[in-house]
Task: structure prediction
Amino acid sequence: MSVPLYQAKAELFRTLGHPVRIRVLELLQDGPKPVRDLLAVIDVEPSNLSQQLAVLRRAGMVTSYRDGALVMYALSTPDVADLLAAGRRILGAVLADRDGLLDELRAGGQGQ
Result:
């Protein structure tokens, strides 16, 4: 029995619900990176990073491959980068709306 689309989407967004996973995806937008490079930038224990990479792999958001002794990670599709960009735009719009409301409150506006 297949999973309803809305349920699959919810699972995708749950996968994105961890700051380390988001940071990994952001870093991989520039191209494949070895684990050691990710560790150098993300302040987590190697075991924690390994766990988060496994979650992203299982969800199909990243792929991994060996390059000699290095394990390399890459975004599975450019659509992942598009999703992150959409998230930034939405967050920017939400925060801009809040800033506008805050400015109005500070100015003593009577808002409707």
